[in-house]
Write a structure and sequence with these properties.
Elements (H helix, E strand, L loop, with lengths): L1 E6 L5 H16 L5 E6 L4 E4 L5 E4 L9 E4 L10 H7 L1 H11 L3 E5 L3 H6 L7 E2 L6 H6 L3 E2 L5 E3 L3 E4 L4 H14 L1 H10 L10
Parallel strand pairs: 1-2, 1-5, 5-6, 6-10, 7-8
Antiparallel strand pairs: 3-4, 9-10
Helix pairs in contact: 1-6, 6-7
């Protein structure tokens, strides 16, 4: 399974790096997962919301198995909001979904799902501060969920919820044992099962 996490200037570090580590750790343990950070604008350096700089080798594929987007900047006018205004990332997400990819978000990355036209009438979640924005966009909010698996659309709540979503993906792809090994390796206690 090829999983791409799309990073952009202003993304929240933990939204992208925590799931990336979970997925890459699972691959080391034998999960059939290839996880990669890709840049919204292709190869180059991306600066995250807290100043971390990430070098990426390429942009997103047309149809990875899973395309995930982090949040960051929804409350501060950069990051997610800038990407919505530019429009390239929401268009790429919509195109990947139409080509058969599972498309997902961590934290306020859910607002990119909105901009891609993928949440109306769908079960979803986001950071608690953006729940009403997501609800107003037509999503069916799953109250209190750390993450939601609605088939070809997945979403995680606030920042650390990306760990739970990534472990859920690992479990779906490689089974409970590998997901449990990864959780143990990173000393993380899973908070819930799929909603």
């Amino acid at each position: 399974m090829r999983i791409e996490i799309v990073v952009f200037d202003g993304f929240d570090e933990m939204d992208a790096v925590a799931p990336y580590e979970v997925l890459r750790s699972a691959a080391v343990l034998g999960a059939p997962i290839v996880a990669e950070l890709v840049g919204v604008s292709g190869a180059g350096t991306v600066t995250a919301s807290h100043g971390m700089r990430v070098a990426v080798d390429r942009g997103p594929s047309e149809a990875p198995d899973v395309l995930l987007v982090p949040g960051g900047g929804w409350f501060h006018g950069a990051g997610v909001r800038s990407e919505i205004e530019r429009g390239d990332l929401p268009r790429a997400m919509a195109a990947a979904h139409a080509a058969g990819s599972i498309v997902g978000s961590i934290c306020t990355g859910a607002m990119l799902l909105v901009a891609a036209g993928l949440v109306e009438g769908r079960r979803a979640t986001t950071h608690h501060g953006a729940i009403e924005d997501l609800r107003e966009a037509g999503a069916e909010i799953v109250e209190g969920a750390r993450f939601v698996d609605d088939g070809d659309i997945v979403s995680a709540g606030g920042v650390t919820s990306g760990l739970d979503l990534a472990l859920h993906i690992v479990e779906k792809v490689a089974g409970h044992s590998i997901a449990a090994q990864v959780a143990s390796e990173i000393e993380y206690e899973r908070r819930e099962t799929a909603v």
